[in-house]
Write a structure and sequence with these properties.
The two termini are 26 Å apart. By secondary structure, the protein is mostly helical. The chain is 64% helix and 0% strand. The protein has one domain.
């Protein structure tokens, strides 16, 4: 999972950067749309792993679960995980509104 997301994020960032440099707002909008949808799906997967006890919690006494993975094992920061899970928690209408504005959820 981490390699696929890393490669995907690199490609999307490159497309968005190219769109900004060439002042192609349509390309930037498409790249933003794709990135938000991918981040939402990643958040859904992270939440599923947590619910199924397939993701270990970091810090303190860690209860080892067969085939559990920490965020660092997945090459994901706590901020990225939080942002993605917030996107995943949005209902479809709120998510589509967020995609339309290109806004990312804030992490507190």
């Amino acid at each position: 999972m981490p390699d696929v997301f890393a490669e995907f994020e690199t490609a999307i960032s490159r497309d968005a950067d190219y769109g900004r440099m060439s002042e192609d707002s349509e390309l930037v909008d498409r790249a933003t749309d794709i990135r938000l949808r991918a981040e939402r799906r990643a958040g859904e997967l992270l939440a599923e792993k947590h619910e199924n006890h397939e993701r270990a919690r970091g810090g303190g006494h860690v209860r080892k679960v067969l085939q559990s993975a920490t965020l660092s094992d997945l090459d994901i920061t706590k901020t990225e995980s939080s942002r993605r899970q917030k996107l995943a928690a949005l209902d479809d209408g709120a998510f589509e509104k967020r995609v339309a504005t290109g806004a990312r959820p804030t992490v507190q």
